[in-house]
Amino acid sequence: MVYDGTVKKSDQQPTRELPPFTLLMSVYGGNTLRELERAVQSGTIEQTLPPAQLVIVRDGPVPDDIQRYLDSLPSTMAVWFAVEHPDMPAPTVTVVPLEENHGLAHALNVGLEHCLYEYIARADCDDVSLPNRFATIIPQFVASSRTASHARPDGSGSVDVLGSAIREFSDDEREPGQVRLLPAEGAELAKYARLQSPIHHPSVVFRKSAVITAGGYPEDAGRFEDYMLWERMMLNHAQFLNVPEPLVLYRTNKEAYERRGGFSMFVEECRLQWRFMRDGFTTPWQFLRNVAVRAAYRLTPMAIRRRAYHAIVDKRNGALESAPEQPEPPKRGRHSAPDDSEDATSAS
């Protein structure tokens, strides 16, 4: 294992049987091999509770190095676990190739069809799962199966969607940045969902049956397929829960802040807000408030938007429970290619 931080209770091997789960990812031509390698390693071989299945949807053509990596991944995964975790079965690797790129929502819907288990965890191909992610969230998912209070009139039913806080980083995961917290559950989370997404998508674990019942990821929601899915599930009285521990390192850089702004992004979000009001998820007043907030954020220059974003997150975090102190972030996986700084050092 490459992780040498302090071992906490959630880092240890679970003592009772836990349900198997699938890790669902999608890769496309805009990803890099380095990002994909790191995401796969952190979500499998570096986990103290690995998934039973890894599903990667290849969303259209990808560079040759990524294709070679995908082709060899089943055998590579078997070797990793045979050498480093001989007491654990290696995850089954399912690569689903799509000839054309139809967007993330379509890729995830196709991927859902290949997921063997009821519990499905999501991961983006440019993020990093901390080693205790699944050992923390899967037991809590099971333990909380009848304790969440969100949405159902009688307060009963199992948790359907469980997310966590995330910690940002910019390229170098050894320099983690701001933590993004969300309300835990109940009325506070329901109120928050009428303004912003109630779940950090890269951190989520959900029940496959609940997502299928809601119609899967909407493929006509632009870049907001996850938010629209959560809206549908909340209207179906699905149970949501967030844990305050940051379990995912979420990659942010200049390009990420650029993607958050611009007129086209604002137009997509206006359409989303209109659909929320039409569905009865938000009121006309909330619709007007949300559009005004989005206009002020999406249409400002990037430098101002970036400062405003961090200020908003700081304010929100201050209103919520403080995030627990975390161990040192994991080192780069030993199965990765060296990063650019390491290349430069070895060449000098």
Give an overview of the whole structure.
- The protein folds into two domains: 21-256, Spore Coat Polysaccharide Biosynthesis Protein SpsA, Chain A; 261-315, no CATH class.
- The protein is 41% helix and 16% strand.
- The chain has twelve helices and nine strands.
- Strands 1, 2, 3, 4, 5, 6, 7, 8 and 9 form a nine-stranded mixed beta sheet that branches.
- The chain is globular.
- The chain starts with 20 loop residues before the first strand and ends with a helix.
- Mean pLDDT is 82; it is low at 1-16, 148-156, 329-338 and 340-348.
Task: Describe this protein with a few key phrases.
single chain, 348 residues, alpha/beta, Spore Coat Polysaccharide Biosynthesis Protein SpsA, Chain A, 2 domains, nine-stranded mixed sheet, 16% strand, globular, disordered N terminus, Glyco_trans_2-like, transferase, glycosyltransferase activity, Glycosyl transferase family 2
Describe this structure in a few short sentences.
This protein is of the alpha/beta class.
Kindly report how far apart the N and C termini lie. Answer: 29 Å
The computed structural class is alpha/beta
Which stretches are low in confidence, meaning pLDDT under 50 for 5 or more residues running? 1-16, 148-156, 329-338, 340-348
Tell me the Rg in angstroms: 20 Å
InterPro entries: Glyco_trans_2-like, Glycosyltransf_2, Nucleotide-diphossugar_trans
Protein name: Glycosyl transferase family 2
Organism: Bifidobacterium pseudolongum PV8-2
Biased composition (Acidic residues): 339-348
